[in-house]
């Protein structure tokens, strides 16, 4: 099952619907919980995700990671593109 996040973009009053996988986000949440428990910086989560390419996070997943970490959605897009470049992939 995939969940949807609907984001209203105030500058253009457009809706952008992006899905994320709750099972993948549960793994991310475990990393965030550990990061917070240990007092690590938020970037620690990103570097752990780099070590887990088998998760195959989609753009929607990365945008949800950004939200969970308190970053703007653009951070998720940037990190998704970065992963696409590293893995030689170009699809959402």
Gist of the model:
It contains four helices and two strands, in the order ββαααα. By secondary structure, it is of the alpha+beta class. The chain has one domain (3-87).
Polypeptide structure, described:
- By secondary structure, this protein is of the alpha+beta class.
- The chain has one domain.
- The chain has helices at residues 22-38, 43-50, 59-69, 73-87; strands at residues 3-9, 14-20.
- It has a two-stranded antiparallel ribbon with strand order 1-2.
- It is globular.
- It starts with a strand and ends in a 5-residue tail after the last helix.
- What proportion of the residues is helical, as a percent range? 55-70%
Shape: globular
* Helix-and-strand structural type: alpha+beta
- What quaternary form is this? single chain
Task: Give the percentage of residues in beta strands.
Answer: 15-25%
Order of helices and strands: EEHHHH
Mean pLDDT across the residues is 84
Question: Radius of gyration, rounded?
Answer: 13 Å
The largest sheet has its strands arranged as 1-2
The overall number of domains is 1
Q: What is the total tally of β strands?
A: 2
N-C termini distance: 17 Å
**Low confidence ranges:** none
Structural features:
two-stranded antiparallel sheet; 92 residues; 15% strand; alpha+beta; 2 strands; 4 helices; single chain
Please specify the SSE layout and strand pairing.
Elements: E1 3-9, E2 14-20, H1 22-38, H2 43-50, H3 59-69, H4 73-87
Antiparallel strand pairs: 1-2
